[in-house]
Amino acid sequence: MLRGIVLAAAMAVLLGVGCASAAERFGNFVVYPEKADVIGLDGEIDTDIVHEFHQALAVRPHVKVLVLQSRGGYVDQALALAAEIRQLGLSTAIPRSASCYSACTFLFFAGREHVVRGNLGVHHVAQSDAQDGVGVYDGDVRDALARYGATAPVIRAMVSTPPSDLHVFTSHEISSFSINRGSTSCLAAKYASM
């Protein structure tokens, strides 16, 4: 319970709202009354992530940006959620004090516009990252990332980093690999700059 309170407070800081605001949680998703255009992901990508997203989306039907703070989780669930993010035309943002690692990166790249100011990290897919051993393979991930516009250097960094390690992109790589997509005035940039 304490972990949830601490994470909700951290998301409040990331989203620039006061802690007195009544944040509403739907599993690992957070919504705030005064931020109708954003939903925050604050936690692991687990087996309930798509259902929890639908619950948050029901409260925020006009959402435009998904703010990301996650160490990753199940690859198959992340790919399913990434497809929904892309279909809905949402943008994604990683604020300065946030991290999006492993399977979370699929969500990030699925964003129509996506901007990182915090940490973005990738590694090769571990077979154990799939829920219940379901066959999610490297090719599935590569195809999804390419479909979402991730550049070849990003995909090379992913496949060349062992599952036990993490390649966190430097600010130079973020620029030279064209990781950020969106104007400096887009909503994704606004939320990433918080």
Walk me through what this model shows:
The chain is of the alpha/beta class. The protein is built from 8 helices and 9 strands. The strands form 2 sheets. The protein has a 6-stranded mixed beta sheet, with helices on both faces. A 3-stranded mixed beta sheet has the order 6-8-9. A hairpin with a 2-residue loop joins strand 1 (24-26) and strand 2. Helix 3 (75-88) runs parallel beside helix 4. The longest helix has 14 residues, at 2-15. The radius of gyration is 15 Å and the shape is globular. The two termini are 26 Å apart. The relative contact order is 0.14.
Keywords:
alpha/beta, six-stranded mixed β-sheet, three-stranded mixed β-sheet, 40% helix
Give a short synopsis of this structure.
The chain is α/β, with parallel strands linked by helices. The protein has helices at residues 2-15, 49-59, 75-88, 104-110, 138-147, 152-160, 171-176, 187-192, and strands at residues 24-26, 29-31, 38-42, 65-69, 91-94, 99-101, 114-116, 119-122, 167-168.
